[in-house]
Amino acid sequence: MAFEIPYSLCFLFVLLQLPFSTIAQSYNNISFGSYLTAQEDNLSWASPSGEFAFGFQKVGNAGFLLAIWFDKIPERTIVWSANRNNPVQQGSRVEFSAEGKLTLTDIGTGKPTNIADGQSTYTGVAYAAMLDTGNFVLATRNSTYLWQSFDHPTDTILPTQTLNLNSSLFAQLTATNYSEGRFKFTLEYGGSLTLYTVNYPLKSPNFLYWSIETGSGFQVIFNQSGSIYLIAQNGSTLHVVLEDPVSTQDVYQRATLDYDGVLRHYIHEKSTDSWSTFTFIPPNICTAIVEYTGGGACGFNSLCTHDEDAAHTSCSCPLGYIPIDQDDERNGCTQNFFPQSCDKASSETEHFEFQELQFTDWPGGDYEHFQPFNKEQCKQSCLADCFCAIAIFNEGSADCWKKRIPLSNGKINDDVKGLALVKIRKDTSTSAKEKGSLVRLIIGAVIILVLNNLVVSIITYLVTSHAQVNPLNPVVRVMNLKCFTFMELKEATNGFEEELGRGAFATVFKGVLASDNGKFIAVKRLNAVVKENDLEFKAEVSAIGRTNHRNLVQLLGFCNEGQHQLLVYEYMSNGSLATFLFGESRPNWNTRKKIALGTARGLLYLHEECSSQIIHCDIKPQNILLDNSFTARIADFGVSKLLKSDQTRTTTRIRGTKGYVAPEWFKSLPVTVKVDVYSYGMVLLEIVCCRKNYEPEAPAEDQMILADWAYDCYKQKKLHLLWQNVGDDQEMDGIEKLEKYLMIAFWCIQEDPSVRPTIKKVTQMLEGTVEISVPPNLSSLYVQYK
After folding, report:
1. Helix (H/G/I), strand (E/B), else coil: 525
2. Residues 720 and 686 occupy one common structural domain
3. CATH, residue 468
4. Quick check: helix, strand or coil at residue 100?
5. Does residue 82 register a pLDDT over 80?
6. Given this model, what pLDDT does residue 438 score?
7. Is the residue at 61 inside a domain?
8. Angle at the Cα of 681 from the Cα atoms of 201 and 660, rounded to 5 degrees
9. Which secondary structure element, helix H or strand E, spans residue 229, and what is its range?
10. Whether pLDDT at 294 is above 80
11. Are residues 525 and 473 in the same domain?
12. Are residues 665 and 606 part of one domain?
């Protein structure tokens, strides 16, 4: 029975449960004008005992968090952060100003953010202090707290801290990403205490997986002895959430909603080097979450396993599946094989088999049920069904349930009675019976590779020798490329009369092939070529010619006669993306989305799918052409290979075009495929906003850097300003779509190449198969335009 006291004594009741030190708290005043700078070995503002500190903590490659942490243990455990979703760069600083404001200034944007919101908060502020409870406060002369970090928890509460109505703890996204993640712990206005999954990346609740439904909950108290309990407004204890440890002597404590969705009560003996779990809720997160919308505890197609002894959960992928994101195990899994075809003319059943998994299930999402069925019948039914990804067979009840992709709520647990039959392609199996086939497959692949190299060598030799004997022969072919004579191309372009475009190293002319039914072509005439090594030119042309993708401009042939070196491409009837985006008529939103995705897929092919990796080095709207259906086709890929290394550099000694050049060029750092990702991010911003990223010809008062402006609009929630520039209201499918594309672009143009996603992940984000987390803050991009 709850113990009740008069409401007039409620405040006293709460105070009596807190240690006297929280009432007469000792502190070290932080005076006006004090500041801290984000550095690798920066200073901090410590509590009197030194057990807690306030300052900047570096979190991997993401940047710095303005945080509070345990400072006397080897693991500097963060318990609060002011900017968890937006880490700042090195050199940023926090200042306690003369006005009593606590201000964080990111050096990347130069804009200050008030940590303690509300102008009225600052009236009467006399000092700031880091307390021994782990609470950072702004206080008056008589020690009344006008603002305190305890009132704005992130994922952790500490002894003496309370959680008030409508307050929440948000789990961080991953073990190393501190931004708000997929789970929240809330004391709702109705008085219920709940654990929810959220509709990530939004904060709205999705599935309730633990709750205390009292209807009268008022506060969650974490007292000094280690008990965490829910009280009513009159002070009566309604429910003990987490019990106190056996002993609280020489022990640090915290309660944290971890990134796996479990609320854990941790203790850390001061004589040891690590935290241990004392108790936790729910008892088993893998079985607690059964979402109707969403992937469950570990994401779509994954499996959740709970270790009761270690109070730990882990996520894994079944055989034939791989993680979508190696850095985020709860982002789910994807098939690592081609799914079964549904074409009736193509029977693929012989290419598939089943992996049997005991104690495994993906609850929900069944689309067919058969009873009575034996295991073999269940397998055959799934095998004959192209929609079937797995079947769950229960021998006791002779049930067979079929499920399709994506699979939700996957779990491995002893109480699961069914047997999961996971359908995979046979060549993904590593079972003993397939090892012989796998060896034969590898041997066959090696033989094919050797033969392929031999054929290429022979072709290169024949082309070279033939060209030396008769360089004007028009029928020499290299990997389906035609070797044109210079006179042929001069005639096709009517003496290079109609110019389509001009760059630093080449001029493009429109032509017509009379010998090919009047087919239009684009002839690129190189200005600066490799004259001393014709074999190298042919080898590189051959490498470009072997590429074949619907989002690349196809190379049809070449000419290599002394000083005349030309490349012959398909003609793109709708010109360049630059003309399309920046002309008088605004292209519609759906077409722009199509172009953005097509460009990303073309880059994905160059980076990961063609026979030899190609880094474009000059992605910009002028090098993205549009065919008659406005499909994006990347041009000029590999052309830099045909130029001398010193000829592919601008006057600033970098490849590419100002405004699209990745920062590593300026720092003489190794160049990787991430330079193309950066350039793509700049192009994506232009596609979204229909304006150039920089316009030096504009009047000084109208000049602006698109990335900086777009990022400011994004941070200030003023995305409508970006859309007003486009004027496409009827085509717009929600402002959240615009925000999604901006977030992808901001990830792409991060200064640190390691932080940028691969173009594969960019493509997945555009397709909607990968969730988009909040991007880190941007550095100023002005350096490119100086």
Report:
1. strand
2. yes
3. 3.30.200.20
4. coil
5. yes
6. 46
7. yes
8. 155
9. strand 228-232
10. yes
11. yes
12. yes
Contacts of residue 170, defined as CB under 8 A and 6 or more positions apart, other chains included, come to 154, 155, 180, 181, 183, 184, 198, 203, 257
CA atoms within 13 A on the CB side of 768: 3
Q: Which one is predicted more confidently, 456 or 583?
A: 583
Domain extent for 765: 586-785
Q: 601 and 549, same structural domain? A: no
pLDDT tens per residue, range 192-236: 999 999 999 888 999 999 999 888 899 999 998 889 999 999 989
User: What phi, psi does 722 have (nearest 5°)?
Assistant: -70, -40
Residues 694, 686 contacting (CB under 8 angstroms)? no
Q: What's the total number of domains in the chain?
A: 3
Active site residues: 618
Which tokens belong to 503?
């760059």
Q: Which DSSP string corresponds to 312-353?
A: EEEEE--TTEEES-TT-GGG-EEESSPPPP--TT---GGGEE
Pick out the residues of the known binding site for ATP. 531
CA distances from 136 to 102, 148, 440, 688 (A): 11, 6, 66, 42
**Which residues are registered as beta bridge partners of 536?**
none
Residue 4 three-state SS: coil
Q: What is the pLDDT of residue 437?
A: 47
Tokens 């100002």: give the residue: 658
Residue 204 lies in a domain: no
Percentage of the residues of the chain whose pLDDT score is greater than 90: 46
Which residues, in sequence order, are CB contacts of 392 under 8 Å at separation 6+? 361, 362, 366, 399, 400, 401, 403, 418, 419, 420, 421
Q: Do 14 and 142 fall into the same domain?
A: yes
> Quick one: 606 and 719 in the same domain?
yes
Q: Quick one: 660 and 520 in the same domain?
A: no
Kindly state whether residue 169 falls inside one of the protein's structural domains.
no
Confidence of residue 152 (pLDDT cuts 50, 70, 90): very high
- pLDDT tens readout for residues 358-406: 999 999 889 999 999 999 999 999 999 999 999 999 988 999 999 999 9
CA 690 – CA 490 distance, rounded (Å): 37
In this structure, what CATH number is given to the domain that contains residue 143? Answer: 2.90.10
Q: What are phi and psi of 784, to 5 degrees?
A: -65, -25
Q: Which of residues 786 and 764 earns the better pLDDT score?
A: 764
Give yes or no: residues 74 and 132 share one domain.
yes
Q: Is residue 335 part of a domain?
A: no
